[in-house]
Amino acid sequence: MDIQIPDPLKPIVTFFHPVMMAATLLLALYALYLGIQSRRSRSAQGATKKAMMEAKYGTRHFQVGSIFLALMVLGSVGGMAVTYINNHKLFVGPHLIAGLGLASLAAISAALAPLMQQGKEWARITHITINVALVGIFTWQTVTGFDIVQRILDQMAKGS
Which helix (H) or strand (E) segment is 132 a member of? Predict the structure, then answer.
């Protein structure tokens, strides 16, 4: 099957994945902040605890994390789809492998939510550990993505 992206849409479709994933990384950092605040609110005392509970960091962390999971999966699948449509193959390398791993880590992390709601501390620690690794790998993968974007821009400049 040979799917062609119309020429006027090629730049939009080609660069949608990198832009979306950069925004997803920023969302991950915001989710991290909310998670830290949620954890702090559980151990706070008195008026500080009351103020932190009113900010609903835990609920906001869960909501932002849900959006992050959806964007991570859609971004991974979308990036592979556009690469395949444009090149008729996938380039198996660190960027692809890390992307698949990140989508998997995000799903595993989200799957721990019911256990954390039951008060399982091991699930919370595992969730935190996975997400710290996820943010680190995602940050590294962003660098490899910028390299790919630069190669695409170079090819586009040579083609015009």
Answer: helix 121-159
pTM: 0.89
Where do the domains of the chain lie?
A: 7-154
Domain 7-154 has CATH 1.20.120.1770: yes
Q: Name the least confident of 10-14, 25-29, 52-56, 64-68.
A: 10-14
Our measurement of the distance from residue 133's CA atom to the centroid of its chain's CA atoms, rounded to an integer in Å, reads 12
Using H for helix, E for strand and C for coil, what is the string for 56-122? CHHHHHHHHHHHHHHHHHHHHHHHHHHHHHHHCCCCCCHHHHHHHHHHHHHHHHHHCHHHHHCCCHH
| Radius of gyration for the chain, computed over Cα atoms and rounded to the nearest angstrom | 19
- Per-residue pLDDT, 25: 97
For 82, residues 6+ apart whose C-beta sits below 8 A from its C-beta are 5, 13, 14, 16, 17
